[in-house]
Amino acid sequence: MTHRTTTTLRGVAVAVGLALLVGCTSTEPDPEPTDPAPTSTAEPEPGPEEVALPDHAAGRAAAWVMSLLDDEPGAPLPEAEERFAPEFLEELPVEALAEVIDQLRTFGPWTVTAVEGTESELVARIEGVQSFDLQLSLDEDELIQGLFFATPAPDREPAASWEELVEEVEDLPGSVSMLVARPADQGCVALDGGPAGPVGSAAGEQLPVGSVAKLYVLGAVVEAVEAGDLAWDTDLTLTDDLRSLPSGELQEEPAGTTVTVEAAAEAMISISDNTATDLLIDAVGREQVEAALTSMGHSDPAANTPFPSTRELFQLGWGGGAELRNQWRDAGTEERRALLEELPDGEIDIDVVEVTRATVWHRDVDWFATAEDLCLAHAALAELAGTEAGAPVRDILALNPGVVPADAGAPAYLAFKGGSVTGVMAGAWYAEDAEGDPVVVTLQSASRDPAGGLPVTTMVGIATDALRLALQDD
């Protein structure tokens, strides 16, 4: 999550414009009109200095995108079908892409002020009325396979002390909870010298966690293997009824594709593959995942019962409008099970642009946990990893560390799962020092404003500091 890699950008075809639309849309009412400001006689500030895009494949593709942004609103997107990879346009047709580009045009004219990257992927800072990071990646045929307009995260200085870090967390907007704790027999306990418990505006409260909930799916898989109901080398078969939306890559494969349980688990954790997750939920059964909530220490399993698949969450959140979201919010457990049964099978039909315009977690459309729940989930998986049935778990959880380990105190072992959806950002890290002593860092943020989500770089920076401070205090 801290590196701009091809893998990261490859998964955002469906999310083109997500950060753009989040950054330009708000659920807050329009402000009251105010008196016009007095006219200033001061000299205007000079505009940002323009930087040339590089003359290589990614640079030329970015220059073409910039030419689209400079057109008048409503102008067509010439050559779009020749410039974008077919898989990209399957997820986001030209008509939907044109809507995103049109919104950006209203914030121009645009100036490129910084650029970094390679011939196959690039990030350019573009300045207009607002600022965005244009992130672009190419496939092997030099077609655009990933395009993302991200709101730049505010600059931050690394925290030099727990006091500085806690102050930063408590000043974050939205509902925020951070925990730095050590798993122990009596639960998750505070570190000596660290925060005494959860901190933040919603410290210790139950908040949405997005894909961090996949930790419970992984736990359910181990328990199914232990019970003899499943094996790590069991083949799972992709069907259209189990196909979800990105993040991930498996959704691009044809029906009938098979993957092993272990490969699906690796994809679920390392790239948060939603379709791989749903294959695993289908394999173990929804009830097994719900049981794992209890066995892994969740304080309120009923909050996630029934446990939706990722596909079902998309359908509940953005497939039936506010009416379906409100039905879900107001329904009891059995009524919710009935709603899940009524969701359509086959090819999933979701307006990917709509996903960026509506926060849904406050309608109970997400998975929920407290900071301590996530700490206990990591501790439970660490224990399961020491069993024969859970042998692959330790390596699986370490596939994507979520931070640069060298910047985070260089732990001897680092496990991570993150999650995000419109208005929601969450991450949970489990680290061990050279002596094998564990520490867990969790950070959750939720906002009803689609533009209010915590920037991923801010989350990563805070987690990096928390891990570094925790490990240096050992």
Automatic annotation (TrEMBL):
Taxonomy, superkingdom: Bacteria
Organism annotation: Actinotalea soli
Pfam families, per the entry: Beta-lactamase2, ORF_12_N
Keyword Amino-acid biosynthesis: no
Keyword terms of this UniProt record: Hydrolase
Region feature (Disordered): 24-49
GO terms for MF: beta-lactamase activity
Cleavable signal peptide: none
Protein name stated in the entry: Serine hydrolase
SUPFAM superfamilies for the chain: beta-lactamase/transpeptidase-like
